[in-house]
Amino acid sequence: MTASEFAETWYRLELSTHQSVCFVLDASDIGLKYQNATLQLLANLRNQLPRFNQNTFVFLGSDSRFEAKKLTAEGANLFLSNQRRLSTIAPVYESAGHDVRFVILAASPIFDVQDWQDTPQFNRSIFVNLGNERLTNGLTPELQPDVSRIAERLESILSSVNISAAGGIPLSWDNPAYQLQTGMELQARNADRYSVTFAIAGPLSEVNAECLFTNGERQLVNSTPIDPSMIREAWGPLRDVREVTVVQECISSRQYRCPHCGKIHEQNELSCLIQGQFLQTSVFASIANVPENVFALFRHSDSGEVTCCSISNPVLPLNPAQVAVFQDGRVRVMNYDGEQKRWCDSDTGFEQFCFLERLGAYAICLR
């Protein structure tokens, strides 16, 4: 990769509107003194949280997770079998999923908690102090064992997600609930689902999602890098004969005879005002009339066949250092500055039927 080229990295973000909860218990010498209080607190929470049994619990210093429903019959025995474990959070955080929320019920200081400050796992944690000593040495507020307040925090649901990467532009994403914002971040609000696979074009960096809950709580959640070979573009034949002809003529002569009015149009003119109509009609109606489609790619074979791939995302890579971004009704062409590691507006406009060498295809904007 040269200084002016960007990296294209793919990620997967797994989120649910109601995130799962892992209750973290303290079975240290001090924690054992609060065993009954811990189990009673959890029993009271079960009565207030309809999904309580769908969650899990674990002990500090351990990575063995148990179903929350086992607390009633086996809680006391599990405390005994896990007693005197070192009060560390690393085994808990390292073995948990990407969107798990943690409720840490402890009575003794957590020795390694400072190592995890500012991590997504720490930001998804609620610390409940059952004893007289500080659990986190002042790194974060610690709740009192108030069942109603804890339940209120856990009943809060995900209301928006904001995905951003320093100096990066989202290239592609598979959840239409996410929209490209002015600052080139992805945002979804009040969605039915928030999980998404997406690509970032720009400098290699950690990509996190900021999650906002209905109670105002904010959390950072990791995005997991994935192999880009898992992503496939959906190509298919362009079936409208008139549209095939337009593509062939634009590629060969940079102009075409309009199938609507019969006049010669330049390749940048992809719509026509038909006599008697007030709105212009696209010459590629078969794909332009699909609301999700923003860009389209065409491949032209020697046999005359034209295949097409529709792009629903408003960002299209043009070459190793340039992208087209459809925003506010126009296409911006942006260049990647490898030295400053950021994207800048270029002085060039988007040309319909520009050739993308990396794909061996011609690109148009349908909007």
Provide a descriptive summary of the structure in words.
This protein folds into three domains: 7-15 and 158-230, no CATH class; 21-155, Rossmann fold (3-Layer(aba) Sandwich); 236-365, no CATH class. It has eight helices and 28 strands. The protein has helices at 29-32, 35-48, 71-81, 90-95, 120-123, 147-155, 241-253, 285-288, and strands spanning 7-13, 21-25, 56-59, 66-67, 101-106, 125-129, 142-143, 158-164, 169-173, 179-180, 186-189, 196-202, 208-213, 218-222, 224-226, 236-237, 255-257, 264-266, 271-272, 281-282, 295-300, 306-311, 315-319, 322-327, 330-337, 342-345, 354-356, 361-365. Strands 4-3-2-5-6-7 form a six-stranded mixed beta sheet. A hairpin with a 5-residue loop joins strand 10 and strand 11. Helix 2 (35-48) runs antiparallel to helix 3 (71-81) and helix 2 (35-48) packs across helix 6 (147-155). 34% of the residues are buried.
